[in-house]
Amino acid sequence: MLFAKEMKIEGDTDVYVLHPNVKSYALKDVGFQISHAGNYTLERSVDPTSPYNKNQMLRVTVAKDLSGFKMATTNASGNSRVNIFKGTHAEGNVEQYHFILQNLIDREILQKKQ
């Protein structure tokens, strides 16, 4: 999947874009790691009971030149996308997902598309 200017998670009504003021140090402060290719990657569990329970994950990758990003909710291994807005634990998972994204918005990494 190529880096995009805007992303929407399956089941979510909001579309997100990179904040125009995004900086590499802000990405590192929030917990993004630099991949072998030089891109910034963040993986967070959307399980509200434990950040260590990695059944369903939010994965965000920002291009090394900060020109685009990828975002997906996946299973623990990352090889299958999941819709966290459906299922028995959807309410808690969605709440944790929005909490993570709000942190990225507050740090001027992402913003909701107008």
UniProtKB/TrEMBL annotation:
<dbReference type="InterPro" id="IPR014965">
    <property type="entry name" value="Amino_acid_metab_prot_put"/>
</dbReference>
<dbReference type="InterPro" id="IPR035942">
    <property type="entry name" value="Lp2179-like_sf"/>
</dbReference>
<dbReference type="Pfam" id="PF08866">
    <property type="entry name" value="DUF1831"/>
</dbReference>
<protein>
    <submittedName>
        <fullName>DUF1831 domain-containing protein</fullName>
    </submittedName>
</protein>
